[in-house]
Amino acid sequence: GENVEQHPSTLSVQEGDSAVIKCTYSDSASNYFPWYKQELGKRPQLIIDIRSNVGEKKDQRIAVTLNKTAKHFSLHITETQPEDSAVYFCAGEKLTFGTGTRLTIIP
Amino acid sequence: DGGITQSPKYLFRKEGQNVTLSCEQNLNHDAMYWYRQDPGQGLRLIYYSQIVNDFQKGDIAEGYSVSREKKESFPLTVTSAQKNPTAFYLCASSPRPHTASDQPQHFGDGTRLSIL
Q1: Which of A79, A80, A98, A101 is the most exposed place for a label (fewest CB within 10 A)?
Q2: Contact at 8 Å (CB) between B16 and B83?
Q3: DSSP state letters, A11-56
């Protein structure tokens, strides 16, 4: 099956700084890459996704970039705020999730 | 998004018992999924169903069973054969089968299962 690796496993950034989380995937045929945010004790929620026909997608302070040649995609959060603290998961098209990144925003 | 309802929120099981976790969706989604989440780990797929009366094993199906008799319901039974069932279980649905692109998933609030 598809293998999705996510790094780093934990990330702490000062409030207002940017955070970047990276995922690599193994299946070159994959075309859809979602990112989920899971706050403590709550359900994962889709925050942004990207399809292989574009290299970047932005939604306010979050963006996702995709490099199909290198088979990696990244989540970028700018101007981080305390409410961005959560666990973030990437996923491949075949329902394989990364192991998650615990992001902590330091006030 | 209250489209997926999981119950109960907390569940306790004695050794040797089977327990069933409920998942109901009113989103009219074709596909439904069960994931297991352990501390510090990602979501691992247990079973999924693309259509009523059909389901497939995921990566960690051993010790679990499912049924899909109705489109809106996808219950998961944790059997006594599952030796380490303590985990957080998440149910999800998506509009189309997972083999298609463009299939964001909606998750329920989860059930936390513990062994007494």
Answers
A1: A79
A2: no
A3: EEEETTS-EEEEEEES-TT--EEEEEEE-TTS--EEEEEEETT-SE
B99 touches chain A (CB under 8 A): yes
The average pLDDT across B50-60 equals 93
Contact B101 A31 (CB under 8 A): yes
pLDDT at B2: 55
Interface of A with B in 70-99 (CB under 8 A): 89, 93-99
Q: How confident is the model at residue B76 (pLDDT cuts 50, 70, 90)?
A: very high
Q: Give the strand pairing for A101-106 and A10-14.
A: parallel
Contact A6 B104 (CB under 8 A): no
